[in-house]
Amino acid sequence: MSHRILLLPGDGIGPEIVAQGRRVLEALRDNHGLDCELDTAPIGGAGYDAAGQPLPEETLAKAQAADAVLLGAVGGPRYDELPREVRPERGLLAIRAELGLFGNLRPAMLYPQLADASALRPEVVAGLDLLIVRELTGGIYFGEPRGVRELPSGERQGYDTEVYSESEIERIARLAFAAAERRQGRLCSVDKANVLESSGLWREVVERVAADYPQIELSHMYVDNAAMQLVRAPKQFDVIVTGNMFGDILSDCAAQLTGSIGMLPSASLDERGKGLYEPVHGSAPDIAGQDKANPLATILSVAMLLRYSLGKSEHAERVERAVGQVLEEGLRTADLQGGSRVVGTVEMGEAVVGRL
Ligand SMILES: NC(=O)C1=CN([C@@H]2O[C@H](COP(=O)(O)OP(=O)(O)OC[C@H]3O[C@@H](n4cnc5c(N)ncnc54)[C@H](O)[C@@H]3O)[C@@H](O)[C@H]2O)C=CC1
Ligand SMILES: CC(C)CC(=O)C(=O)O
Ligand SMILES: [Mg+2]
Question: Which residues does the annotation list for site: Important for catalysis (predicted)?
Fold first, then answer.
């Protein structure tokens, strides 16, 4: 059966890095028996330019029909003056919501070849392998009401709402407990239950779900401490489960432990395991169009796509081994310290394809 994969390059460095992800998929198709059909559609600022909406209807229809989606990144200064409803980032939030992608898996793993590139001392990060499970379609990024209102004094006030229902918390908790079962059996739930009502309920529901997973060691941590612990002693974590905004912030923080945000892939899954795959980083306008972006987070997202949505673990491992090999050979994009040769986006992609 041919797998339909939709590519959504987006904005900024998005087209450059997705082009390298595409080459990997094409090489697997042409030389390693991966039966797939690739299609492309605009999203984010590119969607706005093409169709006046950050998530054009045709793009959504293609994504719904696809077996898996690979996305680059959206956003950039060109679009910052647009009304908020049509900003590129709204297109990303909308596709996550429309596809029901509530479960965002963000592994942060240190390739041993990058021990020198980590922001932390080698002995603190050696062997680092943690997984952040971020709730992706609820919380303050989606909560209503939101907006800017005028107070009686004439002053304007901006407001957003953090909301989580029991069912939303329960399904992300189950996904995280199941992930912990397949890993080292430790789950840390991160919240701000000392202050927020929504976090109080979060903690209560996670505790309730824990009764079904007696073999998992569950702990709770406030998000401010979790940010500190991630940079103090990250290996204490196996799986972290948290809400949308806390997970967004903590995963950028975890990126630095692995050497660069250009190394972090992600999978966003629906209830049936259908998914959208994207690097954790954004559209990096500061380096867009300069052949400087690290394509490895996108290429590692291709590996996650192969594993989770296509059930092709052998192909996924082939991609991950190829990434390890180019790092072993000393190739580095400019965001990564160390190595013996700095290469651009295209050359890094070519090198991975060459090692497949
Ligand atoms: N998933 C998405 O599409 C996301 C989009 N954004 C959007 O991206 C735009 C820029 O946001 P920023 O806050 O600057 O975050 P960013 O992640 O785009 O960039 C932060 C820093 O990391 C660097 N960086 C990011 N990816 C890299 C890569 N692959 N290789 C080398 N260096 C890389 C950038 O050059 C920059 O210095 C904004 O419009 C923002 O809304 C931000 C985060 C996620
Ligand atoms: C534009 C944001 C909604 C996306 C983001 O920062 C993320 O998902 O990591
Ligand atoms: Mg983010």
Answer: 141, 192
Decide if 192 is catalytic. Answer: yes
Residue whose entry in the numeric block shows the structure tokens 């339909």 = 4
Atom 9 of ligand 2, residue of closest alpha carbon: 248
Closest residue by CA, ligand 1 atom 5: 282
What distance in angstroms lies between residue 223's CA and the mean position of ligand 2's atoms? 18
Distance CA 78, CA 89 (A): 13
Name the CATH superfamily, with its identifier, for domain 1-102+270-356. Answer: Isopropylmalate Dehydrogenase (3.40.718.10)
Pocket of ligand 2 (CB under 6 A): 89, 92-93, 248, 280
Going from the C-alpha of 193 to that of each of 142, 201, 220, 223, the distances in angstroms are 20, 8, 10, 9
**Using CA atoms, how far apart are residues 236 and 331, in angstroms rounded to an integer?**
30
Which CATH code, of 1.10.10.10, 3.60.15.10, 3.40.50.10260, 3.40.718.10, is assigned to 107-263? 3.40.718.10
Atom of ligand 1 nearest to the CA of 13: 29
pLDDT in tens, 10-50: 999 999 999 999 999 999 999 999 999 999 999 999 999 99
The reply to whether 270 belongs to the active site is no
Q: Whose CA is nearest to atom 5 of ligand 2?
A: 248
Q: How confident is the model over 330-353, as pLDDT tens digits?
A: 999 999 999 999 999 999 999 999
Predicted ipTM of the assembly: 0.99
Structure tokens at 96: 């996550």
